[in-house]
């Protein structure tokens, strides 16, 4: 079972839901796919060990062989190659590593070299009975998706994998959510929350991923998020209140299921609902 926790914008409580759900279930994998700013471990404090580098290939031009025909620059849709009057200029951080420039070069002047753009780390903790896998994109690198794909290659299909997705609706979110069995969209009952929820719903519907909504900080704002969910027939899976005790625990970096046992059962009930929903193929 693979469950993504996503949101249309940052700061809605996505990571809070992902961490507390993983801890409530136990014997689960938690994958922090918010690789530009991974923060699940702020709540867990695991001793993470590096597993591997994330490597992509980028072109390298042999100027002695290059005839300056410009076919490589014409082929590259990401503008990672530019033909100048006397040379070929490369922009490695724009390269997606497709290898097309190598194939179209008539002079065999282009080869590929490897470049690290991030790392994968892993940690476990017997007390929490949870495995944390974290991807970290190197500072200044623009492409998060290769790190996310390599991180998700570590998913253990025999257990439950909780995916903390990046916020927003761009490519890293699509990479995180596209292959999931279910997606939990976390939002707040505010006009901003509703606007970004609508954008996120459009994305997961186009991906064909089953989904439901968790409303965080319920009690603030207005009821328009709930009105929207009712109108769109979107299940509201859970409402987490705007509660002082939860806020205090969050500010101390403590997952609230560890101090508030009722919520551990609430998250387990949320998981049981998702399992039942999937087993009925969304037919109820």
Automatic annotation (TrEMBL):
Keywords: ATP-binding, Nucleotide-binding. SUPFAM superfamilies: alpha-helical ferredoxin, P-loop containing nucleoside triphosphate hydrolases. One of its GO terms (molecular function) is oxidoreductase activity. The keyword Ligase does not apply. The keyword Chloroplast does not apply. It comes from the Archaea. Residues 57-81, 86-115 form the 4Fe-4S ferredoxin-type domain. InterPro entries: 4Fe4S_Fe-S-bd, 4Fe4S_Fe_S_CS, CobQ/CobB/MinD/ParA_Nub-bd_dom, P-loop_NTPase. This is ATP-binding protein. The lineage of its organism: Archaea, Methanobacteriati, Methanobacteriota, Stenosarchaea group, Methanomicrobia.
């Amino acid at each position: 079972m693979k469950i993504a926790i996503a949101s249309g914008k940052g700061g809605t409580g996505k990571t809070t839901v992902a961490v507390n759900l993983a801890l409530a279930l136990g014997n689960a994998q938690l994958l922090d796919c918010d690789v530009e700013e991974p923060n699940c471990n702020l709540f867990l404090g695991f001793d993470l060990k590096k597993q591997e580098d994330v490597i992509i290939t980028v072109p390298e031009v042999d100027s002695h062989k290059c005839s300056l025909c410009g076919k490589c620059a014409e082929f590259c849709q990401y503008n990672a190659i530019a033909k100048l009057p006397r040379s070929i200029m490369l922009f490695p951080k724009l390269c997606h590593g497709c290898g097309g420039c190598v194939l179209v070069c008539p002079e065999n002047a282009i080869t590929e070299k490897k470049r690290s753009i991030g790392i994968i780390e892993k940690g476990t903790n017997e007390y929490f009975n949870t495995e944390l896998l974290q991807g970290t994109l190197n500072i200044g690198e623009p492409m998060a998706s290769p790190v996310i794909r390599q991180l998700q290659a570590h998913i253990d299909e025999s257990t439950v994998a909780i995916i903390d997705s990046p916020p927003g609706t761009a490519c890293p979110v699509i990479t995180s959510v596209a292959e999931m069995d279910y997606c939990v969209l976390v939002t707040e009952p505010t006009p901003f929350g509703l606007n970004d929820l609508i954008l996120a719903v459009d994305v997961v519907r186009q991906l064909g991923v089953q989904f439901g909504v968790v409303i965080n900080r319920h009690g603030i704002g207005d009821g328009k998020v709930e009105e929207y969910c009712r109108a769109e027939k979107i299940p509201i899976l859970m409402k987490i209140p705007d509660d002082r005790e939860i806020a205090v625990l969050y500010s101390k970096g403590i997952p609230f299921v560890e101090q508030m046992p009722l919520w551990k059962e609430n998250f387990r009930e949320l998981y049981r609902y998702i399992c039942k929903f999937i087993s009925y193929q969304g037919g109820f």
